[in-house]
Task: inverse folding
């Protein structure tokens, strides 16, 4: 009986070792620092016919640009961009929404990013861009 128990324990250890050796690496959320964030008007071909998502109200088109710093030694994929945008009167441009878009791929080091946003035409500029950050995955996420 003792030999049978020892065999079961030994086989369990071998299975545990082999399953950990061939298991895929964990895909964890990686924080990306965004800085030098600014905006500019969209080129006319992108801005033509811009409307906000809630209907057919007129909108102004802007391109948000900046730098993304990936401090890890791996490329980060599908990084969601979060931030707050206020108009000249300190009113939120995107009510109850902090996720603004995404960056498909952020290589190691510092790289440029840009994001297109639509702002209701009745909100005064200049815009104020605050609390920008991003988070993505160290491996590609299946879609």
Result:
């Amino acid at each position: 009986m003792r030999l049978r128990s020892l065999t079961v324990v030994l086989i369990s250890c071998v299975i545990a070792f082999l399953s950990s050796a061939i298991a895929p690496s964990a895909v964890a959320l990686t924080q990306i620092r965004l800085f030098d964030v600014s905006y500019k008007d969209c080129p006319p071909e992108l801005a033509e016919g811009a409307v906000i998502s809630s209907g057919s109200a007129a909108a102004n088109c802007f391109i948000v640009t900046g730098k993304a710093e990936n401090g890890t030694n791996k490329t980060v994929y599908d990084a969601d961009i979060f931030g707050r945008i206020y108009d000249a009167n300190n009113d939120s441009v995107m009510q109850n929404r902090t996720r603004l878009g995404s960056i498909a791929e952020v290589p190691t080091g510092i790289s440029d990013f840009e994001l297109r946003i639509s702002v209701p035409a009745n909100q005064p500029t200049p815009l104020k861009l605050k609390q920008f950050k991003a988070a993505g995955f160290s491996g590609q996420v299946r879609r």
